[in-house]
Specification:
- The chain is α/β, with parallel strands linked by helices.
- It has three domains: 151 residues, NAD(P)-binding Rossmann-like Domain (Rossmann fold); 165 residues, Dihydrodipicolinate Reductase, domain 2, CATH 3.30.360; 84 residues, ACT domain (Alpha-Beta Plaits).
- The chain is built from 14 helices and 18 strands.
- The strands form two sheets. Strands 7, 8, 9, 10, 11, 12, 13, 14, 15, 16, 17 and 18 form a twelve-stranded mixed sheet that branches. A six-stranded parallel sheet has the order 3-2-1-4-5-6, with helices on both faces.
- Helix 4 links the parallel strand 4 and strand 5.
- Helix 1 crosses helix 12, helix 4 packs parallel to helix 5 and helix 5 packs parallel to helix 10.
- The mean pLDDT is 95.
- Bound molecules: NADP nicotinamide-adenine-dinucleotide phosphate.
- The site of NADP nicotinamide-adenine-dinucleotide phosphate (NAP) has 25 residues, from helix 1.
Length: 437
């Protein structure tokens, strides 16, 4: 039992899926939290839109308010779990400027304004933490920001969106189409009624921008993240990838690329073929995982629940305790702010391997024409397999599946265009990037 500890007023902004669980932990585990951080965390208000709604047994009705700015003014610690750019952004900024400790899980806002809000925190000498914004319960931002601060991160590859991992995994294990797997994910509550942010990759892009900023010590703009969702992945893509020893995963990728002695950042989200032996290939269902490579540490893998009220609240509470410990110790320490300028590599120069499917007339000489196009664009072929289309549209044609060695995206796109213009090619070739080499 801790005696004569100081008391800190906590404002909870938002009491939905995550905020409700944070309120539960703050009230249910109050004594234990006090002894862990050395201060009593007193919930002084819960800011919401609908003040009449029932918030369950852990939220005293007298704490509910819709005056969020007034609540922030009275608090020492502000936990923002509302989501959206505004009013969350203004509330966080004013809290930081007023010297309050702030914790948020708002990936959309942080991806947009990380540098600005981190600078506000540094200027006020307060903590601004957002572990829950990327990959829910998985401790990934603190390891990148603190544990690996003395190393040089060369790449980060993450399954950071549980909805899309669930959909691709269901397509892989049941042979379902994208549409059927999405409908199942919606039925089970893994996907929202409007799944756009997940399946078009916007959610993963926000997380990629945050991962890039922290791992490269820069301010990587969300607008520079190359983003391609999973809506065009077919059951046939998945089956042919499987047959060749690959699985298709939707990855957020951050790479430090050195060109002519200068460091560039290649940051992108897209469906990626991974060898089925890669650590990320075995991440099933709605789980998240992040694979980090650093010059001295080598490879590190982090895995766990990427969403959900209680798992996300765990990460939020970790930030609360670690920030309050610093306040109790007499200061915030140094907050991570961007220290480097790392230029974004144009996506046309980003290099990876590719898997290309080309449907052609099954006649002599076609292979040779295709190989010539590859060589014209300096793309070299690693392996090729051929199967015949035996029924339906295109019956009698052959599908060539070509895996390339590493090459630039711009050269690959030019190769695909030129192959498409060959008379023997029946439809526009499709391609997917191959990772994990
Ligand atoms: P949620 O269930 O929709 O809850 C949002 C809460 O914020 C609600 O209580 C809502 O009030 C309140 N709110 C929203 N806008 C408001 C406004 N303008 N004024 C006052 N109150 C407002 O959201 P959530 O799923 O808990 O997510 C919260 C944050 O955590 C988001 O930034 C999200 O991206 C992040 N996050 C969520 C998860 C997850 O698994 N859910 C995982 C990782 C990160 P009412 O209840 O009155 O409408």
């Amino acid at each position: 039992m801790v005696t004569s500890v100081k008391s800190l007023g906590v404002a909870l902004l938002g009491c939905g899926t995550v905020g409700g669980e944070v309120a539960r932990i703050l009230t249910q585990d109050a004594e234990e939290l006090t002894s862990r951080c050395g201060a009593r965390l007193e919930l002084i208000g819960v800011g919401v839109r609908d003040t009449a709604a029932d918030r369950g047994p852990h939220v005293d009705r007298s704490l509910i308010t819709d005056d969020l700015a007034g609540l922030v003014e009275r608090a020492d610690v502000v936990i923002e779990l509302m989501g959206g750019l505004e009013p969350a952004g203004s509330l966080i900024e004013s809290a930081l400027r007023a010297g309050k400790t702030v914790i948020s899980a708002n990936k959309a806002l942080i991806a947009e304004r990380l540098a600005e809000l981190s600078t506000a925190a540094a200027e006020s000498r307060v903590q601004f933490s957002y572990e829950a914004a990327v990959a829910g319960a998985i401790p990934i931002l603190r390891p990148i920001r603190d544990s690996l601060a003395g190393d040089r991160i060369t790449s980060v590859m993450g399954i950071v969106n549980g909805t899309t991992n669930y959909i691709l995994d269901a397509m892989d294990s049941t042979g379902a189409s994208f549409e059927d797997a999405l409908a199942k994910a919606q039925e089970l509550g893994y996907a929202e009624a409007d799944p756009t942010a997940d399946v078009e990759g916007h959610d993963a892009a926000a997380k990629a921008a945050i991962l890039a900023s922290l791992s490269l010590h820069t301010a990587f703009p969300l607008s520079e993240v190359y983003t391609e969702g999973i809506t065009r992945v077919t059951a046939e893509d998945i089956a042919s990838a499987r047959a060749a020893g690959y699985v298709i995963k939707f990855l957020a990728i951050v790479e430090r690329v050195e060109k002519d002695g200068e460091d560039f950042a290649a940051v992108r989200v897209h469906p990626t073929l991974l060898p089925d032996t890669h650590p990320l290939a075995s991440v099933r269902g709605a789980y998240n995982a992040v694979y980090v490579e650093a010059e001295n540490a080598g490879s590190l893998m982090f895995m766990g629940q990427g969403a959900g009220g209680a798992p996300t609240a765990s990460a939020v509470m970790g930030d609360v305790i670690s920030s309050v410990r610093r306040v109790v110790a007499g200061g915030p320490g140094r907050t991570e702010t961007p220290t480097c300028v790392v230029t974004s590599l144009p996506h046309s120069l980003a290099e990876t391997r590719y898997s290309i499917a080309v449907t052609v007339e099954d006649r002599p000489g076609v292979l040779e024409q295709i190989a010539r196009v590859f060589s014209t664009h300096s793309q070299s072929i690693e392996s090729m397999s051929q199967s015949l289309v035996t029924d339906g549209e295109g019956s009698g044609a052959a599908v060539l599946r070509i895996i390339t060695h590493t090459g630039a995206e711009g050269d690959l796109r030019a190769t695909v265009e030129d192959i498409h213009s060959l008379p023997a090619v029946i439809r526009k070739p499709t391609f997917m990037r191959v990772g994990g080499n």
